Amino acid sequence: GLGDFSFKQPSLLPFYQGLPGCLKKIKPDIIDLENEPFNLGTFQVILARNLISPESKIVFHTWQNIFKRYPFPFNLVEKFTYQNTDWALAKNEEAEKILRKKGFSKPISILSPGVDAEQFKKGERKRVALGDKDKFIIGYIGAIVKQKGVLTLISAVSKLKAKFRLLFIGRGDYEEAVREKVGQLKLREKTLFLRTVPHREIPDYLASFDVLVLPSLTFPNWKEQFGRVLIEAMSSEIPVIGSNSGEIPRVIAEAGLIFREGDSEDLKEKLELLINNEDLCQELARKGRERVLKEYSWGVIAQKTYEIYRKILYETRP
User: What is the total count of domains within the chain?
Assistant: First the structure.
């Protein structure tokens, strides 16, 4: 094998020690660079390509869905990347628009993340440590940070009259504020926090949910770039509710419910729709799985990647 070239350094400052030797050895047709265009590692890879394997095509990835101007030297690296690469893979629709706004004139393809549809599929409903089987289980999986809008979710469930259990899986620097809000609204008996769950066990927890909620908020320097947990839940045939932050509405499309970010009353109403309508829950579960199999399974992503590679090889030749 070719090994791993990166050291454990900050993600913007990687050093790919074995890269020159690798390029000399295999002279790749395509270098698929999973780095942002402003990343210093991107600069290193392009420079090595230019010196050692100039015939190799380079495609870079970007998640950036907010227009930002970067300080020196990242601004120069970004410009250098645009001039010295052949293709871009935008990980969401807005990232494509940002690239164009910044002056990138070469081809762009939108390539979303994928999900293992065999690992994440409808499973036995295991009420893992969740208690009463008759309660409606509302789940959140992800970082417990302000941007994810978890306080909106807590406010929304506090207004519900139905029996429910709220489950948080994840940790982050906003945990104290979240637990304080739970206490203020007298929800401690209805809320469970699981800070660390191995990813291999996530399908079991998802199978115990009645709904997964992603209540992300938009900030000046951040909005939801995708929301991978959405496609994991959809693949598992769990209904999803998401805010209208960033890419969430495009990921969910017609396979879930969307509420106005930060609006706990709107989220409460969407939750009540599902609590009171089993047919709607089943319909959204079916649509979610269908959407994943059509757009987000690893097989679909692999085919899309193959088609993009063919275009890079045959549409970018001098």
Answer: 2
Note whether residue 49 is domain-resident: yes
Q: What is the pLDDT of residue 18?
A: 84
Residues of the chain whose pLDDT is less than 50? Answer: 1-10
Based on the fold, state whether residues 170 and 34 are members of the same structural domain: no
- Whether 109 is in a domain gets the answer yes
Domain that holds residue 99: 19-113+298-315
Q: What is the pLDDT of residue 315?
A: 85
pTM of the complete model: 0.92
pLDDT at 2: 45
- The reply to whether 87 falls in a domain is yes
Based on the domain organization, do 237 and 149 belong to the same domain? Answer: yes
The DSSP line for the chain is -------SS-TTS---TTHHHHHHHH--SEEEE-S-TT-HHHHHHHHHHHHH-TT-EEEEEE---S---PPTTHHHHHHHHHHH-SEEEESSHHHHHHHHHTT--S-EEE----B-TTTSS------TTT--TTSEEEEEES--SGGGTHHHHHHHHTT--S-EEEEEE---TTHHHHHHHHHHTT-GGGEEEE----GGGHHHHHHH-SEEEE----BTTB--S--HHHHHHHHTT--EEEESSTTHHHHHTTSSEEE-TT-HHHHHHHHHHHHT-HHHHHHHHHHHHHHIIIIIBHHHHHHHHHHHHHHHHHHS--
Does residue 288 share a domain with residue 161? yes
Does residue 80 sit in the same domain as residue 207? no
Question: For position 57, which CATH number holds?
Answer: 3.40.50.11930
